[in-house]
């Protein structure tokens, strides 16, 4: 009888203990694996902290608790590279997989990629292709202001991920702000002042470098520009003529082209054009303030990948004959 009573008491105690344990045990912080549901839009806004993002994910039902995502993100250095923008990611998902999807660039919505050297006209075409209204973009460009007085040169080449509801004005403003940050990082204002230049002139030189050269030759082309101006020579850059003509993609210009009446025509005008002829990247901007040392006043791309620099006019024309032969042989695979 005593044994039976002891057994009943023991079973009862275990039952009560189990109930107490499971009722006091903290809930799982993460959703179970393989329980994800449909994809949803999730937006990371500029200036949001890691905990802000984690709480927003939990509120949207993408992760079970904000702590689960925060812990995963804090342990993964890649989370520091998360950029603002809207992504399509799965809801009701394990936090580790949510982070992987947030880091996947293919999930970005409204991605706008602006290549280095793109003109305003190119930027508009790219953005219209991503769903922006052309008239609204034109109005945003018209309304935009920069400290140096030119929007051309201020739409920084980069990859942007705009929210679905982003306005044309906010998108253009973000590009200009990105340019300002790049200029600050490169200390352009201070370096320009030391060189006796304005920020607008630096951006103008950078745009010429970007249009005329491949990256390995940026600093040499920069030096040619400075040397020709110092010698009182006109720059005579074909890219400025094409900009005046609102054309792109041609290697050669004609005598008729060279006669175009425009302040951007550096065959007819002395010094720099009045502003940038495109939107240069950081390396071209840096080259504009860090020209290589050399006496060069001529350069020519004899064939793709072979750009030569000289201070000799005779040597330049010998190379030009070589270029003409290569061009006639079809070495340059672009329009005439």
Kindly describe this structure.
This protein has 336 residues and is mostly helical. It folds into four domains: 39-109, Dna Ligase, domain 1 (2-Layer Sandwich), CATH 3.30.1490; 111-185, no CATH class; 193-293, no CATH class; 297-336. Helices cover 47% and strands 9% of the residues. It is built from 14 helices and seven strands. The chain has helices spanning 2-24, 50-59, 66-74, 95-103, 120-129, 134-143, 168-185, 188-194, 199-212, 218-230, 238-244, 255-258, 282-289, 313-328, and strands at 39-44, 85-90, 108-109, 111-113, 159-161, 298-303, 306-310. Strands 1-2-3 form a three-stranded antiparallel β-sheet, with helices on one face. The protein has a two-stranded antiparallel sheet with strand order 4-5. The chain has a two-stranded antiparallel sheet with strand order 6-7. The protein is elongated. The termini are far apart. One of its GO terms (biological process) is cell wall organization. GO terms for molecular function: lyase activity.
């Amino acid at each position: 009888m005593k044994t039976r009573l002891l057994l009943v008491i023991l079973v009862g105690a275990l039952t009560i203990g189990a109930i107490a344990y499971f009722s006091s045990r903290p809930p799982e912080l993460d959703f179970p694996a393989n329980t994800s549901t449909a994809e949803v839009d999730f937006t990371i806004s500029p200036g949001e902290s890691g905990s802000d993002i984690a709480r927003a994910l939990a509120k949207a039902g993408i992760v079970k608790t904000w702590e689960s995502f925060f812990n995963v993100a804090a342990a993964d250095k890649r989370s520091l590279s998360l950029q603002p923008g809207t992504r399509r990611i799965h809801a009701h998902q394990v936090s580790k997989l949510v982070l992987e999807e947030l880091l996947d660039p293919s999930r970005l919505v409204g991605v706008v990629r602006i290549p280095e050297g793109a003109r305003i006209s190119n930027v508009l075409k790219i953005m219209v292709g991503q769903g922006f209204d052309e008239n609204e973009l034109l109005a945003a460009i018209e309304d935009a202001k920069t400290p140096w007085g030119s929007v051309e040169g201020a739409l920084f080449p980069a990859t942007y991920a705009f929210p679905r509801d982003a306005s044309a004005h906010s998108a253009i403003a973000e590009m200009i702000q990105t340019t300002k940050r790049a200029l600050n990082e490169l200390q352009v204002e201070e370096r320009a002042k030391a060189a006796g230049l304005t920020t607008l002139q630096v951006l103008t030189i950078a745009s010429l470098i970007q249009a005329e050269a491949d990256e390995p030759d940026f600093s040499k082309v920069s030096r040619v520009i400075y040397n020709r101006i110092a010698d009182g020579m006109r720059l005579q850059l074909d890219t400025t003529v094409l900009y005046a003509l609102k054309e792109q993609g041609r290697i050669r210009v004609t005598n008729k082209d060279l006669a175009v009446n425009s302040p951007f025509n550096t065959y007819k005008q002395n010094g720099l054009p009045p502003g940038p002829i495109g939107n240069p990247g950081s390396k071209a901007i840096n080259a504009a303030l860090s020209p290589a040392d050399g006496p060069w006043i001529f350069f020519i791309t004899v064939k793709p990948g072979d750009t030569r620099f000289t201070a000799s006019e005779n040597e330049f024309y010998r190379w030009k004959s070589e270029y003409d032969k290569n061009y006639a042989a079809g070495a340059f695979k672009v329009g005439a």
